[in-house]
Here is the input.
Amino acid sequence: MAEGRPLSDVASPKPEHQAGLQTQIREMAALDLEGLRPNCLVCGIRLSAAAPYLRFRVCPGCGFHYHMPARARIEALADEGSFEETSAGILPLDPLEFSASVPYKSRVLQDQTRTGLQEAAVTGTCAIGGTQAVIIVLDFGFLGGSMGLVVGEKVALALELAARKRLPAVAIITSGGARIQEGVLSLMQMAKTALAANDLHEEGLPLISVLGNPATGQVLASFGSLADIILAEPGAHIGFAPHRALHGASHEHAHDEQYAAESFFGHGQVDRIVERDKLKHELASLLEILAPEFRQEAAGKARGSRPRLNPREPWEMVQLARRPDRPRAMDYIQRMFSPFIELHGDRLYGDDPAVVTGLARLGAESVVVIAQQKSRPAQADIEPSTGAPASLPAESRGEITPEGFRKASRAVQLAARFKLPVISLIDTPGPKLGLEMEQRGLANAIAGSITSMLRARTPSISVLIGEGGSEAALAFGVADRVLMLQNAIYTPISPEDGAASEHRDPGRASDMARALKLTSLDCLRMGAIDAVVPEPPEGAHGSPEEAARLLRRTLMRELAELRETRVSSLVKRRRKKYRKIGQHVRNPQVAKEAPAPRRRTWRSGLFRRGSKTRDERPKDEPVKKVKTAGKAAKPEKGAKTPKSAPPAEAVAKPVAGPAATKPAESASKVAKRRSRLRAVLLRRRGKPATRKTEPDARDPKDRAGSPGDG
Ligand SMILES: [Zn+2]
Here is the structure.
């Protein structure tokens, strides 16, 4: 909307343009505040009888969003009769006794008379679509919506009120530049409001900002940008630097589009562009998702029989997983979640369309969704021989860029802040490769995504829905529960690439598919995933509706189970789960035959491997502590030890699975034997065998640990 710039043209608070500008602001504001326009400035159609214009100040012809005064904004957003103003009695000050062409006092008086407002900010509490919230509205019509002492104070008080009353906050921002008439004191308001916004974050309460036209300068660079979710109105002029500062004193507007909300959206700075008539619904949905009363803290466990899974040939699974008509992430999202509100951008560089993030509801539970989205290729793009899409751009193939990983990290952090479970859907051939990707920080972005998923203080479930390709799959797949659709695949390398590198023959991909053990049942056996989600008999493509229903049911059941565990325990359990994959344990066979040289495992911990974790343990059962790091934990009473010993070489387990618990149980058997032996030795020396697990410093065998001991 290039023509939609006239309003932003007047947003120039630089002192050298101030006088001329104030005139323009007044002119524009007067046009919109003191009466309705007869015709559209942009397209010229008659506005005086148009309902969208009368209600929302939006031209029905061209969609231009006109200035909307603060009171009208509140009336359009708040549920009827719910608004209660706060801090209305705080009146403007003139701390510098500023006087230029027009004294500050008279300028304020003029704007007060014209707008009916005391100051540029109106704050209060209201209900938006039934959810109580604190609302802050900055009115561009009052001295350009700039932030002086009173505006800063009212914003800070409102955010503090939100924190005290545990309410979400919504800030509607139309503001340009600085309140130069209040000098450096106006600048300090940035710190004050940023402090209040950060305090709200600390409390785990959401701040949503809506950027109107214009949203620039100090307000944008303080609490405006610190919002958890940033919405913008179409065509709004956004940017730190005010419009005129960018163009100098000239009136050249050649690049106006680059400062429009749409451009900022494209550069990952804004979550969503929302038309004003849809803003209330959008805010209501967001507030509902983020509101604590809609979180399902503990749901009853859903029980049901698990259907039989028919194994298929691995290569057949690869073909199924890659079918162009296999449901994509969005096909599941649209069928499983209602509502789903997509959030965009990595806040750093861009928005990767191959990664979809958003807030959603799954049944009664609010969740954050991160998903890898392949676009469905046109029939012409499908290679007939393989049925796979050929020569598609990377984003259509679902290759993930650094922005995609960062976007996911951001969503996970958002989820953790609001204690919303994370549901991640995985379907990608891998990360997008290339020099440019390296320069944009691909490795760092992947590591960041893994870290976010590992650390998130909220339940998480990952689902492999199609291709689980390499590091890009793992970066979305570190979760409390990892599920896999029956015909999905999970592999570090494509079978074709694997065959090319191992057999020097890409044609042997089907052999490689078998060797890679990439099917859902193989992954379950290896312990790489926790459960397999059944698909309709012919595969998910046969009935996407049914596939989504089956997945939704599993997700709800898994989520209900995760909700029964404290978050701190989930995080610990998650750490443990990933730590023990391929963990080095000492050679149990050697120890059995020659117990004398005391070797220790690298592992230490409160519980023996394969034993119950703290949360699964009955409450009355005492926690057995192992005081010495580096020693095998004491076996639990009644723990079964296998009769057969595992192979003699040191065990570096590829993954921890059901089969992988054997060596550890043998290790504990050895530990038991060792402690008995030690008791005998001590008795022979006439010492009481009191310390069973602590090393005896006087015992030479205890000092003769292997060099690797910590
Ligand atoms: Zn128009």
